Amino acid sequence: MTGGNFGFSTQTLNKIEKQGDTAVLKKNEKASIYQLCLNDEISYEGRKLHVQTEDIGVDKAQIVTNVFSGGQVLFSKATEYRDLFGKDDFNKVLVDRVRMQHRTILAGISAGKLKVGP
After folding, report:
1. Cα distance between residue 6 and residue 56, in whole Å
2. What is the C-alpha separation between 37 and 40, in angstroms, rounded?
3. In terms of DSSP bridges, do strands 62-69 and 47-55 run parallel, antiparallel, or are they unpaired?
């Protein structure tokens, strides 16, 4: 994947930017591909939580969300996406899945439906 768009279309990058999450596209040197990472800081029951969701690369084909507090992982969820391989809209659907998983975890924490540590 080449260019400043990291393999994602300009439309997809604009969508990421407009939806307000902190999005980071980073290069995975080992896999030589670019990946999407979303980060948010939220407060829950008096604690500051960091929620990070990322595509860990096509070699593992997983979207992983971790919820941290004070450097400790309180919750983790991994979802495979091998079913997307070969699809014409692979990048778009992958970005949508990363975003959906991230927002679902944020909503679950806010609603008190996810246990995020003691």
Report:
1. 15
2. 10
3. antiparallel
Residue-level pLDDT at 50: 96
**pLDDT range class, residue 103, cuts 50, 70, 90:** very high
Q: 25: closest CA among 42, 4, 40, 51?
A: 4
Number of domains into which the chain is organized: 1
- Token reading at 42: 């939220």
Instruction: Please report whether residue 51 resides in a domain.
Output: yes
90 occurs within a structural domain: yes
For position 6, what pLDDT does the model report?
39
Closest residue by Cα to residue 59 from 79, 33, 37: 33
How much is the pTM? 0.72
Determine the Cα angle at 26 with ends 23 and 30, to 5°. Answer: 150
DSSP state of 84: G
In a domain, 5, yes or no: no
